[in-house]
Every structure is written in structure tokens, then in C-alpha cells.
Design brief:
Order of helices and strands: HHHHHH
Low-confidence stretches: none
CATH topology: Son of Sevenless (SoS) protein, Chain S, domain 2
Number of strands: 0
Largest sheet: none
CATH class: Mainly Alpha
Number of domains: 1
Helix content: 55-70%
Radius of gyration: 17 Å
């Protein structure tokens, strides 16, 4: 609970901007970046791989803060998930859609969404905010 959403958003936005600034457009084409690691192809699409690795690190951070401490109560998890919803909203304000979508994706697609005790304790406003954020990320 020690993290301030605005500070997290600022740092994520700086990291995302740095990664996206380095992306080589031609590396987005084809499927070179999606192929399994092969020693001869590790140098291909390194900028795309860096953005994917960043996504994985942010996703891991969200999951770990929500589920990593077995002594957390459902109410503790509610507060942490609320913080992450705030982070996603602040990312949207700064137009950092990469991190915003990462956070929302993790909240709706991982074990976090199966925590019935946690979601049952959510205040109405926070749940509305999450649903609104999810709606924005769905095509």
C-alpha cells in the first residue's frame, strides 16, 4: 500500500516511452519477434522483445502485489486492486495505453478475477471504475 499511483504511472510512462522510442517499425512486421528463441535469431526484433518483456514485468508486478502475500485479507486485496485501478486510470489520462491495458488485462485475465471474497467486498464506485476501464480496453 506504500505506492502512490501517480508516481507509479509517471515511472511506467517514462519506461514505456523509452521502449517505444526505440522500436524499429520494420520489426513490427512479420513474425520474427514471435519465433521461439534460437541462438541465431536472438538479435532479431530486439526492440519488440523488450516491450514484451516490459509487459511481462508489469503484469508480474500487479499479480505479485495482489496475490504475493498470503497473510493479506480480502479487504487488503481490495485496497491493492483499487490502487491498480487508479494506476490504470492515471495511465489513460497520460495516454499511456500500454501500461493501462496491461494492468486491466491482469486484473481481468489472471487468478485475481477469481477471488470471490475480494470482489464481494469492493465498493460500488471502484467496481464501476474497473468495469469502465475494462470496457475501454475491449475492442
Amino acid at each position: 500500500m506504500a505506492f502512490l499511483p501517480k508516481l507509479v504511472v509517471e515511472q511506467l510512462t517514462v519506461m514505456d516511452a523509452e521502449l517505444f522510442r526505440k522500436v524499429v517499425p520494420s520489426q513490427c512486421l512479420g513474425s520474427t519477434w514471435g519465433k521461439r528463441k534460437k541462438h541465431s535469431k536472438e538479435h532479431l526484433a530486439h526492440t519488440i522483445r523488450a516491450t514484451i518483456n516490459h509487459f511481462r514485468r508489469v503484469a508480474s508486478l500487479v499479480v505479485t502485489t495482489c496475490l504475493g502475500d498470503p497473510s493479506m485479507t480480502a479487504q487488503d486485496r481490495v485496497r491493492v486492486v483499487e490502487r491498480w485501478i487508479q494506476v490504470a486510470q492515471e495511465c489513460e489520462i497520460l495516454k499511456n495505453f500500454s501500461s493501462s491495458h496491461t494492468v486491466i488485462y491482469v486484473l481481468k485475465k489472471t487468478f485475481i478475477c477469481h477471488l470471490k471474497n475480494t470482489w464481494g467486498k469492493f465498493p460500488g464506485r471502484a467496481l464501476k471504475d474497473l468495469r469502465s476501464a475494462i470496457a475501454k480496453t475491449n475492442p
